[in-house]
Design brief:
globular; alpha+beta; about 400 residues; transmembrane helix; Ferrdict_sens_TM; Phage tail protein beta-alpha-beta fold; Jelly Rolls; 19-stranded mixed beta sheet; 3-stranded mixed beta sheet
Length: about 400
């Protein structure tokens, strides 16, 4: 078939999809074309919306209507296993996803069938444990508002929005050797206001160790997991974030650090200001819009431009992926839903691009994964992942 005829054929199939008249055989044909790696740009039929985001939204609503998605997921872009060239490729990707969902329905138990036997995993929520310098632990999600504890002249206060605030009644009198640790479990997140006024958001499966009061010379905290920082400016007192052998030095800035132990690197993404990332004897400075990546194996630091919204999406209530490999996507899901990922055979290959709200139940995320060709099934406390068919 000539390229011109092929283009006409897939435009015809795209129109049929939007009108709801496409047959299973035609949907399979469209899916086979896309999965074969057809990367040539295809013109959009005139009836398509001119704006790519609007096209994606319209097509996603079509998918939602056909697969029983709740209405609130209509604005969630389906995860995509490939990048697309333009709006026509958007159509191909979503049609392909729709076919994958239809195909998988015939091979695996339906989420509706599983729901009666297996409780649906809920998304994470604000929860954390605060460990004081004397070893006392406070479960923050069940603690009331107001003063939770007092250490010397410092009052630890839970605000009405749930965040924790340190109020130093006798500034400079508390030794900086007295540390607190905030620990956020899997399935949680929490916000903290440090003694100097710096704000920290902690993601699931993360912890932050910090002094009850900072000295006048420097401010140092220790992070495990992922945190977003908005550091209060103080030229006389540099702020340092320690992550194992890596140290991040700032004066006043906003940045995100992803440093989970089960990831292959430490990522520092800068939004405003300037930071220096040091790994043993290697030091690199990054500017806003850049990301420093420290390789955990060899300590090498690479710096490049990045889309900062990808790094901070978790703080804003979203999963956002840009050509992330499937295991990395599943690790994020594991932390947020407090479930274990169990591979049933070989690990699926490929990369995913897309965004999903973090307030969905796990069953909704599973449906979107399946639309992307990732075959999985929920069990109690586990997500079973099957090899690509």
């Amino acid at each position: 078939m000539s390229q011109e005829k092929a283009q006409s054929r897939y435009e015809e199939l795209a129109e049929k999809w939007l009108k709801g008249t496409i047959t299973p055989e035609e949907a399979k044909e469209y899916a086979a074309w896309y999965n074969a790696g057809q990367d040539a740009p295809v013109e959009i039929p005139a009836s398509f919306a001119a704006n790519e985001a609007e096209q994606e939204e319209r097509l996603w609503r079509k998918i939602a209507a056909r697969t029983g998605f709740p209405d609130h997921t209509a604005t969630a872009a389906p995860l995509r296993r490939r990048r697309w060239w333009a709006a026509a490729a958007v159509t191909a990707a979503i049609v392909t996803a729709g076919y994958c969902w239809h195909h998988w329905q015939t091979k695996a138990p339906q989420p509706q069938q599983l729901a009666t036997a297996i409780p649906d995993a809920l998304p994470g929520s604000d929860k954390a444990v605060l460990t004081l310098g004397n070893g006392q632990q406070i479960i923050l999600d069940s603690a009331g508002n107001g003063t939770l504890a007092q250490q010397g002249g410092v009052h630890i206060v839970k605000k009405a929005d749930g965040s924790i605030l340190y109020v130093d009644q006798h500034s400079g009198t508390i030794p900086d050797t007295l540390y607190n640790t905030m620990t956020v479990p899997k399935g949680g997140q929490y916000k903290l206001i440090l003694p100097d006024g710096s704000r920290v958001w902690l993601n699931a499966a993360s912890s932050l160790k910090y002094p009850v009061a900072f000295s006048n010379k420097e401010r140092t905290v220790e992070l495990n997991g992922e945190g977003y920082f908005e550091v209060a400016a103080s030229a006389a007192s540099p702020f340092h974030v320690k992550v194992r052998n890596t140290q991040i030095a700032v004066l006043g800035t906003s940045f995100n650090v992803m440093a989970y132990r089960d990831e292959s690197n430490i990522q520092t993404t800068l939004l405003t200001g300037a930071v220096k990332v040091k790994q043993r004897t290697i030091e690199r400075q990054i500017a806003p819009g850049q990301q420093a990546v420290v390789n955990n194996e060899n300590g090498h630091i690479s710096v490049g431009e990045t889309e900062t919204a990808l790094a901070t999406a978790w703080k804003d209530g979203q999963f956002r992926f840009s050509s992330n490999n499937i295991p990395m996507v599943l690790r994020q899901i594991s932390r947020w839903y407090n479930i274990d990922i169990v591979y049933q055979g070989s690990i699926p290959q490929g990369h995913i691009t897309g965004k999903v709200p973090r307030n969905m139940k796990l069953s909704g995320v599973i449906r979107i994964l399946e639309l992307s060709g990732v075959r999985c099934r929920q069990e109690a406390g586990r997500l079973l992942v099957f090899p690509s068919s």
